[in-house]
Design a protein that fits this description.
With 88 residues, this protein is an alpha+beta fold. The chain has one domain. It is built from three helices and two strands, in the order αβαβα. β1, α2 and β2 form a beta-alpha-beta unit. InterPro entries: AB_hydrolase_fold (IPR029058).
Length: 88
């Protein structure tokens, strides 16, 4: 399945109507080379009832700018684990 078809298929699953119910701490990760760049920031902005939320944008310098930090797993894992350590 071409990558565009996957993105189109995923658009069928929309949780925007329930995002106002989320209240737990949230970490939202994004990358400048993400297939749907900007969607993660939209999610972060839509979490209006989350008091403690963080948005991290990975770029070329981090080597973790791709989807799921592919190619930059060490950077991504360190960031996620540091966040978890600070929030759990």
């Amino acid at each position: 399945m071409p990558e565009e078809a996957v993105v189109d298929e995923l658009k069928k699953y929309d949780n925007t109507k329930i995002l106002d119910k989320v209240e737990c701490e949230v970490l939202v990760l994004d990358g400048t080379a993400e297939m749907t760049f900007g969607a993660a920031k939209e999610l972060y902005d839509a979490l209006v009832n989350v008091k403690n939320k963080d948005y991290i944008l990975f770029d070329d310098d981090s080597t973790a700018q791709c989807h799921t930090q592919m190619g930059g797993y060490a950077t991504g894992a360190e960031t996620i684990m540091d966040w978890l350590e600070d929030h759990i």
